[in-house]
Design a protein that fits this description.
The complex is a heterodimer. By secondary structure, chain A is mostly helical. Chain A is built from four helices and two strands. Chain A starts with 5 loop residues before the first strand and ends with a strand. Chain B is mostly helical. The longest helix of chain B is centred in the middle third of the chain and has 31 residues. Chain B is built from six helices and no strands. In chain B, helix 1 runs antiparallel to helix 6. Classes of the chains: A mainly alpha, B mainly alpha. Chains A and B meet through helix 3 of A and helix 5 and helix 6 of B.
Chain lengths: 69, 141
C-alpha cells in the first residue's frame, strides 16, 4: 500500500482571500503564527477542531483545504 | 523566533548557569568556604539570583512582543510541552537510578554525594526538557 500523507491548500486559499497573512489566519482561529506556518508546511497536523476552523474562515468544505493522498 | 522559543532559551541558559555554578561549588567549594559562604547559602542565593534574572528576562521579551505573551499556548505548543516533559522524565529516571547506584556502590560515597547527584539529575532533566522544546520549536519553524 502506497504511503499517504496529509497535504493542504492553505497558502493558495490565503492568497485567494485578499492575500490574508499567516498572522491574520492565526488570529481568526486562535493559534500562533508559527503554528499556521507549521501546518502550511506540513510539519504539523492540526486537530479536527482547528482544521474545521480553517475551513470555516475560507468558507469552503474541509476537503478543499486538506487532502490525504 | 517566537515568544515561547525565547522563553525556553532563557530557562535553558539560566539553568545551565545554575547547574554550572552548582557543580563548581560542589567540586571546588573551598573557594566559597574560604570566604565564609556555606553550601545552603550558596545554593539558595544562586537560585534566587537566577530566578530574578529569569523573571527580568521574561518581562523583557514580554514587553518586546506583548500580544504573543498574553496569548495562551495553542495545541501545537502544548504538544511540544508534553513531548519535552516525556523526554525529560526519562532523563530524570536514569539520573535518579545513577544517583542511587553511586550513593550505594561507589567507594567512599556518602549521602552528600548522593544528594548532589540527585540535584544534578534534576537540573539535567530540566535542561533536557527546555532543550527538547527548543529543538521541537526549531524543527517546526
Amino acid at each position: 500500500m502506497a504511503h499517504k500523507t496529509l497535504h493542504n491548500d492553505i497558502r493558495r486559499l490565503r492568497f485567494e482571500h485578499k492575500e490574508m497573512t499567516q498572522q491574520e489566519l492565526a488570529d481568526s482561529i486562535g493559534v500562533t503564527r508559527q503554528t499556521v506556518n507549521a501546518i502550511e508546511l506540513g510539519k504539523y497536523s492540526p486537530s479536527l477542531e482547528i482544521a474545521f476552523k480553517i475551513a470555516e474562515v475560507f468558507r469552503v468544505p474541509l476537503d478543499q483545504v486538506f487532502h490525504y493522498r | 523566533m517566537s515568544f515561547r522559543e525565547k522563553s525556553a532559551w532563557i530557562s535553558f541558559v539560566c539553568l545551565l548557569m545554575f547547574g554550572g555554578l552548582y557543580a563548581w561549588h560542589s567540586f571546588r567549594g573551598e573557594i566559597f568556604r574560604a570566604r565564609g559562604i556555606g553550601p545552603m547559602v550558596f545554593v539558595f542565593g544562586t537560585m534566587a539570583a537566577l530566578v530574578a534574572l529569569e523573571i527580568a528576562l521574561h518581562v523583557a521579551i514580554a514587553i518586546q512582543s506583548p500580544k504573543e505573551a498574553r496569548t495562551p499556548k495553542d495545541e501545537r505548543e502544548r504538544l511540544i510541552d508534553l513531548r519535552a516533559s516525556r523526554v525529560a522524565f526519562y532523563a530524570l529516571f536514569v539520573g535518579t537510578l545513577l544517583s542511587i547506584a553511586i550513593g550505594m556502590h561507589l567507594p567512599g560515597a556518602n549521602r552528600f554525594l548522593m544528594a548532589n547527584c540527585m540535584m544534578g539529575s534534576i537540573i539535567a532533566a530540566l535542561m533536557v526538557r527546555f532543550g527538547t522544546q527548543i529543538v521541537l520549536y526549531r524543527r517546526d519553524a
